[in-house]
Amino acid sequence: MASTNKTFKRCGCRNQQGKRLEQNCPRLPERGHGTWYFQCFAPDLFGRSERIRRGGFVSQAAARAAREECLADSAARRCGDGWTVERWLRHWLDTRTRIRPTTRLHYTRDVELVLIPRLGHYRLSELDGPLLRAVFAEIAQTTNAKGNPQSPSALNHLRTTLRAALNLAVREDLIGSNPARHIEIAGYRRPHAQVWTDGRVEQWQLTGEHPAVAVWTAAQLATFLEATVEDSLFAFWWLAALRGLRRGEICGLKWAAVDLDRGLLFVERQRTTAGYTVVEGEPKTAAGRRAVALDKHTVAILRAHRSRQFAHRDKRHDNGQVWIDSGYVFTRKDGEPINPSYATTRFRKLTERAGLPPVRLHDLRHGAASLAHEAGADLKTLQDLLGHSSIVVTADTYTSVLPDSQRRCADATAALVLAAARHTRKRIKEKAAKNRPTGRAEKEAPSEKRPTGKKRSRRSRSRRNPLRYGK
Fold it and tell me: Does the predicted TM-score (pTM) go above 0.85?
């Protein structure tokens, strides 16, 4: 090992063929020509021997001192100096074995398309707040794949990915703290659902602008359901709009998990998309595995949907066509489960056909929470219905106040204030009536002035009523 830990001198001179001479330059013995380097081997994070080479030192003594400092440093610190951001990000992705396929897809896009091209050549130990803020400012000036400016939401997702990767580096003692926490995204606010009021609908019709997350009113939802009552996926829209199921949970629903006699539906699986690939697995969170109660009308809708599905199956059998008995509640014509992306596309087309203001399919879940909250459901019941692991998410994100609820709240607030005002006026009148003179002489000569006495000083008045002057 002693032969591999060494210092040497080299320069940037080139021969006639243009090849660098490095350590073979005849001028290296000259003072001031070239710079000194050191090379050593030390165990990395995984215990493997890794070569470390540094250069640019003005003297051999400086190179030796730097080598000894590097060897004396901890193994974790050497890795922080030796690992580039590109190498660490790829290592971080390889070790994320328990994340969902969609999450892995988003992480990979952020790492490969943005983070590595912008930060890959830096070392982990070189990352700090000012550097990352400058890089994110440059990213904010670029455009996305559609040619539009980078949105605050996309930049926030990028920051989340980088912060997650550097959190592992902190846990492994490669860096002392996470510099990504110093990144500030200008203009980013967590989206909150806005109700399609009459004013917003008129503005949308004039300008085409609409909220990122929007919720239909009860009347607008009723209009959509009436327009799609004959649609083959009517039960799909009903479950999303009134029971708040996620798209993937409905696509992954099987008849074996539906108990129509007891009025229960069990969320056990979900079908999602990662790019163009359909992935089926566990629900999004542990709280996502839940039982959802079904009202009588929902049970009737599911019974009618099952009857139509069985009739369609028998018709295909009679015509000699293939039917795959997959057991899913919502299927294609051949019995295979539907693609989640197909449900999204069809919902958008049905919304446009009904002439309603645009909402996303996932926004029906927001609307279900808001409608249930307006109907009197408390937040804990909504949390269980939606399958949230935290009641904070239910309160902050999914419950929007509908106009009728706002109006009732405003009326109740105004009534409370007006009642207090009436009570105050009544007390003032009663007190004035008690202090009003009742004698005849006083009534006949109301303009007589009080006998003027010696004017009291402010000090004497303050002694008589100390509270009046703040004492």
Answer: no
Distance of CA 161 to the CA centre of its chain: 12
Calculate helix-pair angle for 234-242, 218-227, nearest 10 degrees. 170
Q: What is the DSSP string of 358-402?
A: P--TTHHHHHHHHHHHHTT--HHHHHHHHT-S-HHHIIIII-PPP
**For residues 80 and 68, is the Cβ–Cβ distance under 8 A?**
no
Query: Three-state SS for 70?
Result: helix
The total number of structural domains that make up the chain: 3
Please state, in angstroms and as integers, the Cα–Cα distance from residue 432 to each residue in 45, 51, 146, 437, following that order: 86, 95, 74, 10
Residue 159 lies in a domain: yes
Domain-located, residue 18: yes
Instruction: Quote the pLDDT of residue 467.
Output: 41
Average pLDDT over residues 281-306: 91
- Where do the DSSP E strands lie in 251-383? 258-259, 264-267, 270-274, 277-281, 290-293
Boundary of a domain, candidates 27, 49, 72: 72
CA distance 18 to 282: 61
The answer to whether residue 142 sits within a structural domain is yes
Residues ≥6 apart with Cβ < 8 Å to 450? none
Same domain as 150, residue 221: no
Cα 10 from Cα 25, distance rounded (Å): 7
Report the run of H or E that residue 158 belongs to, with start and end.
helix 152-171
Domain of 35 in residue numbering reads as 6-72
262 and 324: one domain? yes
Q: Is 259 among the domain residues?
A: yes
Domain end residue (candidates: 159, 182, 205): 182
One-letter amino acid of 199? G
Do 201 and 172 have their domain in common? no
Tens-digit pLDDT profile for residues 382-435: 888 888 878 877 776 666 555 666 566 666 766 777 777 777 777 777 777 777
pLDDT in tens, 198-235: 999 999 999 999 888 899 999 999 999 999 999 999 99
- By residue count, the chain amounts to 471
